[in-house]
Write a structure and sequence with these properties.
The chain is about 50% helix and about 20% strand. It is an alpha+beta fold and about 250 residues long. The protein has a 7-stranded antiparallel β-sheet. Strand 6 and strand 7 form a beta hairpin. Helix 1 packs across helix 5, helix 2 packs antiparallel against helix 3 and helix 7 packs antiparallel against helix 8. The chain is flat.
């Protein structure tokens, strides 16, 4: 990680011995299930409606009924995939305390000694920044900023309140100060890996193809527009994530 990141973390750590951050603990498995299950239900709904339009109530009604439980489980899965927590970072421990529905789900408070952290990563998405922490024992922790509208007024003015990235970089700075090599901490995200870079080059090629199609007689300009739109969405995320990569 660059010297700028490390110095930022160290200055944050020196300004407050204890930092707090309102976060959500992201469980990607449940989140993907909550997204993919209703996506599989949509074809059933479409085909069911087609059967009903042809007068086949047995198949049409059966397919629509089969899609109902798939749609019903999506929202609970998404809620369980994003658990509100209050993160407290001290020089030795990161503590995650449940808040709101996390308490109802029975999520226990958990302490993570910094001496057991072996990796750190960041992921910039359309919804904001995520940090990834890798304990030596246990699964990877993916944390993101919690929407402010869900935070109680009593906890909006906690001392040392920071966002997810500041908390993560402070944690990283403390680990480096304790003697952990900076390079060994970094964990590349999808966009910083080989497959992410390959997709970026493919998007550049598709953008060039879109520009060339504008010069081809008879090709509708909306073809190029679609290529520019979809490739630009990926490339914007790709470039944002390259800014979080370590520099030599």
């Amino acid at each position: 990680m660059s010297a700028t990141i490390t110095s930022t973390a160290e200055s944050s750590a020196s300004s407050s011995a204890t930092l707090h951050s309102h976060l959500v603990l992201v469980r990607m498995g449940l989140m993907l299930a909550g997204i993919l299950i209703p996506a599989f239900a949509l074809p059933l709904i479409v085909v069911g409606c087609l059967f009903l339009s042809d007068g086949d109530r047995a198949w049409g009604g059966g397919l629509l009924l089969a899609s109902v439980p798939m749609l019903a489980v999506a929202w609970p899965l998404l809620r369980r995939s994003m658990l509100p927590v209050l993160a407290t970072l001290t020089p030795k421990i990161l503590r995650l305390e449940p808040r709101d529905r996390s308490i109802a789900y029975g999520v226990p408070p958990t302490d993570y000694p910094l001496s057991e952290m072996v990796g750190y990563g960041e992921l910039a998405s359309q919804g904001g920044a995520h940090i990834k922490l890798y304990p030596s024992h246990g699964p990877m922790l993916q944390l993101a900023d919690r929407p402010k509208r869900g935070i109680s007024a009593a906890e909006t003015s906690l001392p040392g309140l920071v966002d997810a990235v500041t908390l993560g970089r402070t944690l990283q700075g403390q680990m480096v100060a304790a003697g952990t090599p900076d390079e060994s901490l970094h964990r590349p995200n999808f966009y910083q890996g080989g497959f992410g870079r390959a997709l970026a080059w493919l998007c550049y090629a598709l953008m060039a193809l879109g520009a060339a199609l504008l010069l081809v007689p008879g090709v509708d300009w909306t073809v190029s527009l679609r290529l520019f739109t979809f490739t630009a969405l990926y490339l914007s995320l790709y470039r944002r994530n390259q800014r979080t990569a370590p520099t030599a």
